Amino acid sequence: MPVMTNVRGKASEARSKLLTTATRLFYTEGIHSVGIDRIVVEAKVTRATLYRHFPGKDDLIVYYLQEADQAIRDQVGAILAKESPALDTLRAIAESIAAGIRSPGFRGCAFLNAAAEYPDPAHPVHQAVLAHREWFSRVITEALANAGDAPAESAARRFVLMRDGAMATGCLSDPEPICETFLQDVEDLLQRHVAVSRGEPG
């Protein structure tokens, strides 16, 4: 999808305001509950301006998820760029997840929340969710493959499941014990992965 720009070639201020407003409202209040009129009013733009940048609400939602996806890719990319040992890389990714859960205003995983509102696998919003999850699973699988000879795919599925559980419950109660449990479970998973790679009992 093309980015609308102004005569100076910079990203349109209106587009930025729309995305910022939509991101805040979609994440804190839910996607279906927030209408176009609400976004237009809070972004202080006209409906015509919105439709110049986004053909419809679904396009705006997909952009919102793509922005969230890119933010996480950048965060993980910074971890991978350090070229630490694979186990330390996985620990750092887990720590970044825990930091997000502990952050003020945390309302769960934006992608799981969106998937719950758009369950049709063929819908563009659901497809955006799947694209993010496939990328994340691939990153974890590759890191685990570098950490030992034990099957990486099953261990990666467990890592993602633990991440999903922590994200889903981290906004329902005190996040601290949730994060502690998540990080300990990740460490147990990594130690088991190393043990199996060495031929020790799993």
From TrEMBL:
Lineage of source species: Bacteria, Bacillati, Actinomycetota, Actinomycetes, Pseudonocardiales
Residues annotated as signal peptide: none
Keyword Phosphoprotein: no
SUPFAM superfamilies: Homeodomain-like (SSF46689), Tetracyclin repressor-like, C-terminal domain (SSF48498)
DNA-binding region positions on the chain: 35-54
Start and end residues of each HTH tetR-type domain: 12-72
Highest taxon above the source species: Bacteria
Protein name: TetR family transcriptional regulator
Alphabetized PROSITE patterns for the sequence: HTH_TETR_2 (PS50977)
DNA-binding keyword on record: yes
Keyword terms of this UniProt record: DNA-binding, Transcription, Transcription regulation
Provenance organism: Amycolatopsis azurea DSM 43854
InterPro entries assigned: Homeodomain-like_sf, HTH_TetR, Tet_transcr_reg_TetR-rel_C_sf, TetR_C
Pfam families xref list: TetR_C_13, TetR_N
